[in-house]
From TrEMBL:
Alphabetical UniProt keywords: Signal
Basic and acidic residues bias locations: 261-281
Name of this chain's protein: DUF1565 domain-containing protein
InterPro entries per record: Pectin_lyas_fold, Pectin_lyase_fold/virulence
SUPFAM superfamilies, alphabetized: Pectin lyase-like
Signal peptide range: 1-27
Region described as Disordered: spans on this chain: 250-281
Keyword Signal appears in the UniProt entry: yes
Amino acid sequence: MTRTNHPGARLRAAAAALVLTTVAALGAGAPASALPAGPGHGRLTVYVAPTGDDANPGTKQAPFRTIAAARDALEGRTSERHRGTVNIRGGEYVLDDTVALTGAENSWVTYTAYRGEDVTITGTHELPADGWQRLTDLGADELAQPQYAANTRLDTDALRDGVWVYDLGAQGIDPGTLYKNGFNWVQQPFAPELVVDGATQTLAEYPNGNACETKDTACHLWGTGGKWGAVGPQDLMNVDLLGRFGAQGHWERSGTTPRGQFEDKKQTLADPDDRGSWSSEKMRTMTPSVFTVGGRAAEGDRYQRWAPQAEPVVDDLGGRGLGEYADVPVQLDPRWIEDIDSTRYETEAWLSGYLGNNYANDMVRLLSWDEDRLYAKYPSMYIPQDEWTKVKVVNVLSEMDAVGEYYIDRYDGHDVLYYVPDGGTVEGKAVSLMSFDKSFFHLEGTTGVTLRGLGMTGSLVSGVQLLDTVGTLIDDVEISNVSMDAVRIGRTADTITAMPDYQT
């Protein structure tokens, strides 16, 4: 149940220098003005080393520990005539926050590997074997601690045997965040990754497996399966599709789903002010799915473990459909369920897969259940259809029953990682968690900044972000294992559109 990291994950910005003389986002930014510098401004070369200390003066003999401390030491002291240099000694630097360089005060500085030494800047945390514990080795007093509240969701010996736990919170490691992503949605950071001996492990899921043929229903929860040419077991069936979303054939003009609120579907509206796309934030408040549970999801009341029991309180936020659907509310946004008993219920389960067609993969959060209904938070991009429904439940500790599966309990700051390692032990294995969802360097409004000779690896977004910068040089920098772009120049206004001539 592991997936080996694929070669396409590696991105490189190396060999030839990347010179960016003018970079603008959302309009041209003015160059950062030069700051006066001279003997009164002191030494403009500082050092960083893995063995340093941020209380040090930043000399070669007494270097800083972090790149951020070196940045702060030079802040406001550099200019085009008096450039600053941050010499970074060889070794690994684990980031928990981006190195943000902003405006004139952080301009005219070179961040460089010292004399060709190997420097790696990473967002990945190693999880050594001495930080792990077998779940079955923890005593009653330890398991009674709040951070281990979820352990009781592993409610059989078969589920508990072979499970190891790592207290991320105690080690100060960010557990990361699961964001809604999917086809046509504004891209958000990818899901955190647990990597063991070079292979990405599997977020706890039901059903297990990814080796099924198209019509094989074993690896997913299904609706009717009609559009796939399969006989679906009707695990999840949508409630009142016609009343809540309108006719499927009207999806392009009804405006009842996010895709219907893209500007390319609204150009015939009488008022030009109504023709623009809704923001992604507003789209996420649109009407979500409600399912009737059957098939395997209902066996042994399985679905009742995936979310707390509650009938959601739904707020009508005012949005309405288009044309003949102008009276249909399309922003029926359910409130979050508060005070979940995390000893019994999953707190952050998702459905991931296909809900409206066979090319638009999507994710919706499971909110709650009541009687035989399962309620979602967040809409799917298209009108959901029973014929297309083909999903997995993911991020569910109570379903962690296969080697290679893991789960992070983030609820209420618990921040504990649960994992089923191959061979029944983590000992002798290289285990790491990539949960860093920021860029390594974020430059905004700077002039004359150089990044040279650095290695950067392990981010769930882009490696380097440049906004309104002038004269940036990225030279002999290798960026690998990032989920988005190696170097992102500029940004959009997070506007979702299918129009070919849009500007952001």
